[in-house]
């Protein structure tokens, strides 16, 4: 199982808001596929899949503010 995390997005950035998920639980994704959009004070960023597999869990719904490094979902890279 691969964890989808909010990456470090700037020197001073400590949190990001999940704007929208571009995938649903059960969707298959390839490496580099856009998963979700997040927004910080300075930028909007698309988080891409680091592994291919099936989206198994979405932990942070749209509108939720999460700390940088937080796990927001899971991809089953064995599926």
UniProtKB/TrEMBL annotation:
Residues 1-76 form the Lipoyl-binding domain. GO terms for molecular function: acetyltransferase activity; lipoic acid binding. InterPro entries: 2-oxoacid_DH_E2_comp, Biotin_lipoyl, Single_hybrid_motif. One of its GO terms (cellular component) is cytoplasm. The keyword Acyltransferase applies. Pfam families: Biotin_lipoyl. The keyword Acyltransferase applies. PROSITE patterns: BIOTINYL_LIPOYL. CDD domains: lipoyl_domain. Its cofactor is (R)-lipoate. Keywords: Acyltransferase, Transferase. Forms a 24-polypeptide structural core with octahedral symmetry. This is Lipoyl-binding domain-containing protein.
